[in-house]
Each structure stands twice: as C-alpha cells, then as structure tokens.
Specification:
The structure holds 2 protein chains of 2 kinds.
Chain A (H helix, E strand, L loop, with lengths): L7 H24 L7 H8 L1 H15 L14 H15 L3 H18 L1
Chain B lengths: L2 H16 L4 H17 L4 H11 L2 H12 L4 H11 L2 H13 L4 H9 L3 H13 L7 H26 L11 H11 L6 H16 L7 H23 L9
Helix pairs in contact in B: 1-9, 2-3, 2-4, 2-9, 2-10, 3-9, 4-5, 8-9, 11-12
The chains are: A mainly alpha, B mainly alpha.
Chain lengths: 113, 243
C-alpha cells in the first residue's frame, strides 16, 4: 500500500492496455463497409452478450478463489448469493434489490456456513 | 438551435434515461475496479490514469497481478487483448447500425462501448424500442451516463480504497451486477442454450492462459445459440406452452 507501483514503465503498460481496449472495441466498427456480414452471422451476434456474460459469471461463481477446482456444493457462498440475486430478478427487475439480496445472502452464507 | 439539433438532443436524453436502471451495477463494478487497483499496489495518480485511459474493468483486473509481479510488457498487453476479445464480437454486432456514420464517430462510439452499454443497445435493437433516427445520439446518451458513473465510482474506489476492508467480499457485487445484466436476456430458448454451453466450456477451459477460457466459452455459446435458433425457426409452431 505505502509503496505503490509507478513510473514510466507503468505509463507504457497503461498505454498498451488502453490500445488493447481501443483496438478490440473499434475493430469491426472501423473496418466499416469494406465487407458485409451475412444474415447468419447477424443472428449469431444477437446472442453474443448473453453467452459472453455467462462465460464471465459462471466461472466467477463456481471457481472461487480463482484457479481452484469447481465448487458445485450447495454451501458455496457465491452460488447462494447468485441464486438469491437471480430469484430476486425473477420477482422484480429492481437492480438495487438484486444486488442487496445477493450480497446479503452471500455475506450470511460466508459468515454462518 | 435548429429542429434537428433539438431532436438529436432529445434522443440523446432518451439514451441517458435508458441506461439508468443499470447504473447502480456500473457504479458497483467501477468502485470495485478502483479499490482493486490501489489494493493491488498502484499509486492513486496512476490508478486514476489507468481508469481514464483503459476504461475496461475486466482487462484492468486481469492485468493487475501481472503489473505488480513485474511481468514483461507484451505479456500484460496480450492478457489485456485476450480479455478484451469479446469486444471484437460486440463491435461486429454494432457495425450494421452505424455503418453510415463517419469513421471518427464510429471510433468514438467504439471507445465508449462496454458490456453494459452494448447489452443495453442490443436489447433495444431487438425489442424494437431503438429510435428510428439518430441512433448514434441515443447510444451516445447511453454511453455518456455509463462513462460518468463508472469514472466517478472508480475515483471513489481509488481514493477510498484504504478505508475499505478487503474481507467484505465487495468484489462479488461486480459479479451480481453482471447477473442482473444478463437475466432479462434469458427469455428465449436459444439464449438459454447458449448461456449453458458458454458457462460449461468456460469452466472446462478455465486453466488456459490469458483468460482464453472466457473467449472459448463465449464462442462455443454463440455457436450453440445460433444452432438452437436455426432449429427453432425450422420447427413448426407448437401450441402455447404452459407457464
């Protein structure tokens, strides 16, 4: 904490990371009208958000701490928290309630189980 | 101000309102990224610089341990690139909607596109609630609110990091915010099939370096969802299902 990472090298790393974001985000947007995507590809891209988010979320819930083995146990606090948040979502679309119930269930499970 | 300007401004505001429901999630996610950067060992000015320039929470979090460990530049940037590969898919999905815009505008909209703003845009594109005209202004409104919220929350996290105990498990709010983001999209069978396949492949491929498992999972899920969509189209319409 007291001795943080800094310096020119870090500046270069930050520029490199910024480029990695910019290049990926603008890739097809800038490639522009040079080629057309088929209708099949457009159907595929419609499912991009849901699939990518599932690939981020599920390992985060079941493989905690990172790189550990898959924890499918019903006592996994993250699984309990995510289920609580999911149930809340089915009942109401309120995001604050979803975060609140998920965190409450997660914290309770972590402290009590 | 001409009538067109006024119309564009109104559409921009509509976009700003459209993203409101997911701003608490963006705030939580930004704050967690901010806290993590300082807890991970970056000094406050560098953490602020990183948040402003990179503006990609997942890539920042993935790169952080490598930065702290003094990994070579190319390893860090490769990790960032691979974590960000999903944006290539997003970029391709957005392209048809902005193909007629000048390249400067496409570059700007691309820079401000995130998981949250992209998902919001695609939801409106699919349910038909996207405005007919000035889509760029609408998406700019979505992105503006998301950017301001994320940066403010990242600053809050960076400056307040020393007051936040690590053992609160606050980083889990970020995961929950993504759950809330994906939930409403799980309303059709192909989407559910895709999500399940993506999750299973991402779990199995998790040991791959550079977070490649995430990309493999996303690709497999998209392929499965597309196949499911295709079969669904070919199936004759059935009687309405229960529930």
């Amino acid at each position: 904490m007291n001795e943080g990472v800094s310096g020119i090298a870090l500046g270069v790393v930050i520029v490199g990371l910024a480029l990695s974001t910019f290049v990926t985000r603008t890739s097809f947007l800038l490639a522009g009208a040079r080629f057309r995507l088929g209708s099949r590809v457009e159907v595929a891209l419609r499912y991009a958000p849901v699939c990518t988010l599932a690939a981020i979320i599920v390992p985060d819930i079941l493989l905690h701490p990172p790189a550990a083995t898959i924890d499918l146990s019903v006592l996994n606090p993250r699984l309990i928290g995510a289920l609580a948040a999911g149930l809340w979502l089915c009942w109401s679309r309120n995001l604050i309630g979803c975060l609140g119930s998920g965190m409450a269930a997660y914290t309770l499970a972590r402290l009590c189980l | 101000m001409t009538a067109t300007d006024a119309a564009r401004k109104e559409t921009f505001r509509q976009g700003q309102r459209a993203i409101l429901p997911s701003l608490p999630g963006a705030f939580a996610w930004g704050m967690i990224s901010g806290v993590a950067m300082v807890k991970g060992g970056l000094t406050v000015p560098w953490a602020i610089m990183m948040s402003l320039m990179v503006y990609a929470g997942s890539a920042q979090l993935a790169a952080l341990p490598l930065i702290v460990a003094g990994a070579p530049l190319w390893v860090i940037v490769t990790t960032g690139l691979i974590t960000n590969l999903r944006f290539v898919i997003y970029s391709a999905a957005l392209r048809p909607y902005f193909a007629d815009e000048p390249w400067r505008k496409r570059a700007a909209l691309g820079f401000f596109m995130t998981d949250f703003t992209f998902t919001r845009f695609m939801r409106s594109a699919q349910d038909g609630s996207l405005p007919e005209r000035n889509r760029d202004a609408w998406f700019a409104g979505v992105c503006a609110n998301n950017w301001v919220t994320w940066q403010l929350s990242a600053m809050t996290g960076i400056i307040g990091a020393s007051y936040v105990p690590t053992d609160w498990g606050l980083e889990f709010t970020g995961t929950l915010a993504l759950v809330a983001l994906v939930g409403p999209s799980l309303n059709a069978r192909p989407a559910v099939v895709g999500a399940i396949v993506a999750a299973v492949v991402a779990l199995l491929a998790f040991p791959l370096p550079f977070k490649l498992g995430l990309f493999c999972g996303a690709l497999a899920g998209i392929a499965a969802a597309t196949l499911a969509d295709y079969w669904q189209q070919r199936e004759p319409p059935r009687t309405p299902e229960g529930a």
